[in-house]
Design brief:
The chain has 200 residues and is an alpha/beta fold. Helix content is 44%, strand content 16%. Helix 3 packs parallel to helix 5 and helix 5 packs parallel to helix 7.
């Protein structure tokens, strides 16, 4: 089997805080050991990306690589708010609109579209974040965006990998990004899901 898998997202997908390059690079390296198949995994995570930013590059990235499978892991930066919960980086309504547009674009390339759910944060370290005192993440808000992803996946008969229950505070580096242990947990859950659903 020959297959191209595009994985889109933010710094968590890019692999921040992990010397091995995060769960996506673990997946790529693991699949590269399969001598019977040619499975290409592209890590298309960009630090700071939200759904607005992803839309600007999504079609180009896919057109260039012509994927068989598209995995989207976006939303935690959308849920971020500036100084007040009344000032989200991307409103929940706009987030929903953006995801629907991403799905429409993805369907031009494949019907194998998978969303990865959002992880919980350590609120003690990210309210506010250590590198910008105006920016906040909280689990109540992240949960709302995660539920919106699940709802959209259900309504559009798309696959969804739950992550909200997976990590605890010991799996996070700076309160937001998974450490090596956290990325290993994410890798194992995604790999199991892909195998169970015969994606790989």
């Amino acid at each position: 089997m020959e297959k191209t898998i595009n994985v889109f997202g933010d710094s968590i997908i890019w692999g921040a805080s992990d010397d091995l390059g995060g769960w996506v690079n673990r997946l790529r390296n693991n699949l590269a050991q399969d001598q019977d198949n040619y499975l290409k995994v592209y890590n298309l995570g960009i630090s700071g990306n939200n759904s607005d930013g992803l839309l600007k590059r999504f079609n180009f990235e896919n057109e260039f690589r012509n994927p068989n499978t598209i995995i989207i892991a976006i939303g935690i930066n959308d849920s971020q708010y500036i100084n007040s919960k009344n000032n989200p980086r991307v409103s929940l309504q706009k987030f929903e609109s953006n995801l629907l547009e991403l799905i429409n674009q993805a369907k031009k390339y494949t019907q194998e579209i998978i969303f990865i759910g959002l992880i919980k944060v350590d609120e003690k370290k990210v309210m506010p974040i250590q590198w910008d005192s105006t920016k906040f993440y909280d689990n109540e808000n992240i949960f709302l965006y995660n539920e919106k992803i699940k709802e959209i996946c259900k309504n559009n008969e798309l696959m969804f990998v739950e992550m909200f229950d997976l990590l605890d505070e010991s799996d996070l580096d700076d309160g937001l990004h998974p450490n090596t242990k956290g990325h290993e947990k994410m890798f194992l859950r995604v790999k199991y899901f892909l195998k169970e659903n015969k994606i790989i």
